[in-house]
């Protein structure tokens, strides 16, 4: 029997008030979806609530293959912490892959890890990076990234797809099945993470990913909502990031896409009343193409009449929609459970993104191979 390859293990260095996208949900959940083991350590986060899974004082750098440093405000004070700098040097000195984004490079500068190295960052960090001896690479856009050996640096979360892809490459990973074209069905006040995390995760796998919304065009923005679980009887709701659409809804040719993703949030409530949306969803389902829907997205599937005879889950409050439309309800216990039935992947909420994206990748015949 062949011995299975060991799973790559990555450490995520966290702190209060780091940038929400740049830590929890995009790099953290994307890497998990790809089969990489990720530990997050140091402190709790704001934005969405985020549960750490490792204790800083117990970290052994030798057990990890790489390090990820998010941006935001946290690096300003983490760069003053000698224990943090010692930890960073345990990755930089032996040449292990390090990915740092936005203001995260403050920590690298304080640790002496960018001296003589090419790097980019959020533009305001240029004076610090230059003073620390870095070869500064000007970010042409807020999506710019730079590689210098084991070091991957990015300007902001807009560059996550390339940033994550370069880090995976530094870890020795290779992607198969990256030629897919995927469509996201968007609307105002869709859930922030439920669009951004799958969208950027699939882009990082070199898929062509488009986002459309009825009555909007490429370049227009959709407002998003942050839905979180904070101990109340239902989820809380706060404003999220704006999300930029990439294609026109009107005149869309669904036959040019291999798969469909439907985020949750508030948007499905009104998108389920749009006949052009119903037609689009039916075209994907009837063609047997992979469809992934999460949280309240199943309100759209139930309205389109495509759940009859299908096993699926959703946010618990959407159970009535699923049952009345002829679907077989699967309890999301715990809330991160996801299920696949034929061409359909369903999830209950954004904590399930790693499994949600992983199951969708299986339907797309995508795989990330990790080198020893």
From TrEMBL:
Alphabetized SUPFAM superfamilies for the sequence: Class I glutamine amidotransferase-like
Domain of life of the organism encoding this protein: Eukaryota
InterPro entries named in the record: C56_PfpI-like, Class_I_gatase-like, DJ-1/PfpI
All copies of domain DJ-1/PfpI, residue ranges: 8-169, 180-361
Assigned protein family: Belongs to the peptidase C56 family.
Record PANTHER family: DJ-1 PROTEIN, DJ-1_THIJ_PFPI FAMILY PROTEIN
Protein name: DJ-1/PfpI domain-containing protein
């Amino acid at each position: 029997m062949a011995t299975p390859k060991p799973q790559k293990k990555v450490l995520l260095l966290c702190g209060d008030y780091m940038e929400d996208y740049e830590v929890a949900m995009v790099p953290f959940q994307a890497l998990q979806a790809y089969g990489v083991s990720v530990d997050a350590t140091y402190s709790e986060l704001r934005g969405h609530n985020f549960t750490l899974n490792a204790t800083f004082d117990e970290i052994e750098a030798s057990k990890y293959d790489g390090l990820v440093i998010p941006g935001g405000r946290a690096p300003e004070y983490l760069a003053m912490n000698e224990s943090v700098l010692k930890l960073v040097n345990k990755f930089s000195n032996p040449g292990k892959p390090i990915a740092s984004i936005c203001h995260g490079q403050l920590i690298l500068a304080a640790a002496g890890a960018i001296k003589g190295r090419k790097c980019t960052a959020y533009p305001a960090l240029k004076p610090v990076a230059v003073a620390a001896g870095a070869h500064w690479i000007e970010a042409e856009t807020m999506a710019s990234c730079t590689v210098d050996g084991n070091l991957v640096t990015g300007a902001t979360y807009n560059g996550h797809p390339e940033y994550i892809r370069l880090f995976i490459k530094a870890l020795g990973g290779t992607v198969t099945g990256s030629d897919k074209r995927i469509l996201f069905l968007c609307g105002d006040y869709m859930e922030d993470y439920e669009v951004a995390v799958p969208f950027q995760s699939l882009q990082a796998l070199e898929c062509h990913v488009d986002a459309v919304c009825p009555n909007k065009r490429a370049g227009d923005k959709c407002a998003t909502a942050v839905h979180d679980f904070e101990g109340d009887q239902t989820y809380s709701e706060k404003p999220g990031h704006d999300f930029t659409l990439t294609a026109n809804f009107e005149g869309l040719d669904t036959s040019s896409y291999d798969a469909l993703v439907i985020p949750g949030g508030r948007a499905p409530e009104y998108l389920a009343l749009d006949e052009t949306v119903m037609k689009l969803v039916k075209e994907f389902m009837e063609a047997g193409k992979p469809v992934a829907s999460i949280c309240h997205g199943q309100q759209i599937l139930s309205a389109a009449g495509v759940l009859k005879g299908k096993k699926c889950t959703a946010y618990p409050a959407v159970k009535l929609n699923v049952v009345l439309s002829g679907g077989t309800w699967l309890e999301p216990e715990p809330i991160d459970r996801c299920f696949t039935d034929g061409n359909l992947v369903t999830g209950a909420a954004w904590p399930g993104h790693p499994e949600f994206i992983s199951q969708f990748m299986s339907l797309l015949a995508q795989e990330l191979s990790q080198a020893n």
